[in-house]
């Protein structure tokens, strides 16, 4: 069965390392804040000027003025810092973010990402996505494997306007964890109960399938 949003966030949280500065994009990536392993020191950054985000608040800890870039209420951990968005983007553009987790509409075998607009639909603008893909060496895209109509989002070539080119190396979908190498998706892990055949059928871009593809495990 396909991963839930929470399971996707749990799986990405395993990629964290002690001492990392991490930017979480809008959407599913924000849930990763709830699953940082106990005892691990990770500083979560938001483009609007918060370094040191904690988990989402409970009803009795909500502060309406404490929000992330997606305007969701968040908490601040001990040692957090609040500063201007200009300083926040200087941190991103200066390459000081160790890991970026982004949502996307499409990713292709060349590591291109389309995440900011669908032609004909109203959009607010690029936001911080272009800065994030340009300033980060280590990016994980987290998204559904296919659209609601069943169309693959893992393509030979992105059809939507690009956010960044040749910048994505890892993708986690609700069906699989994949890496991009030499113009192909390489299947590394599959969601519990999801067959390799289903992943193959829903991947439009070139896909390399190793002899053994382990299932992800969740507690």
Please outline what is shown here:
The chain has 219 residues and is an alpha/beta fold. Helices cover 14% and strands 24% of the residues.
What can you tell me about this protein's structure?
It comes from Pseudomonas orientalis. It catalyses: 3-oxoadipate + succinyl-CoA = 3-oxoadipyl-CoA + succinate. With 219 residues, the protein is an alpha/beta fold. It has one domain (5-208): Glutaconate Coenzyme A-transferase (3-Layer(aba) Sandwich). The protein contains 4 helices and 13 strands. The mean pLDDT is 91.
Question: Layout of SSEs?
Answer:
Elements (H helix, E strand, L loop, with lengths): L4 H9 L7 E4 L18 E4 L3 E4 L22 E7 L2 H9 L5 E4 L3 E3 L4 E2 L14 H7 L3 E4 L11 E2 L14 E3 L3 E6 L2 E7 L5 H6 L5 E2 L11
Parallel strand pairs: 1-2, 1-5, 5-8, 6-9, 8-10, 12-13
Antiparallel strand pairs: 2-3, 3-4, 6-7, 10-11, 11-12
Give the tags.
219 residues; alpha/beta; Glutaconate Coenzyme A-transferase; 4 helices; 13 strands
Secondary structure: number of strands: 13
Q: According to CATH, what is the topology?
A: Glutaconate Coenzyme A-transferase
Task: Please report the distance between the alpha carbons of the first and last residues.
Answer: 16 Å
Strand order of the largest sheet: 4-3-2-1-5-8-10-11-12-13
CATH class reads: Alpha Beta
What is the residue-mean pLDDT, rounded to a whole number?
Answer: 91
Q: State Rg.
A: 17 Å
What gross morphology would you assign?
globular
Major β-sheet, in short?
A: 10 strands, mixed
Low-confidence stretches: none
Residue share in helices?
10-25%
Helices and strands, in order, run as HEEEEHEEEHEEEEEHE
**If classified by CATH, what would the architecture be?**
3-Layer(aba) Sandwich
Give the percentage of residues in beta strands. 15-25%
Number of domains as seen in the coordinates: 1
Q: Helical stretch count? A: 4
Give the name of the CATH superfamily.
Answer: Glutaconate Coenzyme A-transferase
């Amino acid at each position: 069965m396909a991963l839930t949003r929470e399971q996707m966030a749990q799986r990405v949280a395993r990629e964290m390392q002690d001492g990392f500065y991490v930017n979480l994009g809008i959407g599913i990536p924000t849930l990763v804040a709830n699953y940082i392993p106990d005892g691990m020191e990770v500083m979560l950054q938001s483009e609007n000027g918060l370094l040191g985000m904690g988990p989402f608040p409970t009803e009795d800890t909500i502060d309406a003025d404490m929000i992330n870039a997606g305007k969701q209420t968040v908490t601040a951990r001990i040692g957090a810092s609040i500063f201007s968005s200009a300083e926040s983007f200087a941190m991103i553009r200066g390459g000081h973010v160790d890991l970026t987790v982004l949502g996307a509409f499409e990713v292709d075998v060349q590591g291109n990402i389309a995440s900011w607009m669908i032609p004909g639909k109203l959009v607010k603008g690029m936001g911080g996505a272009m800065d994030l893909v340009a300033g980060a060496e280590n990016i994980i895209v987290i998204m559904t494997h296919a659209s609601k109509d069943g169309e693959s989002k893992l393509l030979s070539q992105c059809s939507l306007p690009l956010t960044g080119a040749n910048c994505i190396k890892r993708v986690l979908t609700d069906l699989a964890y994949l890496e991009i190498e030499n113009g192909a998706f390489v299947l590394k892990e599959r969601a519990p109960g999801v067959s390799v055949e289903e992943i193959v059928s829903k991947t439009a871009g070139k896909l390399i399938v190793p002899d053994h593809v382990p299932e992800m495990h969740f507690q």
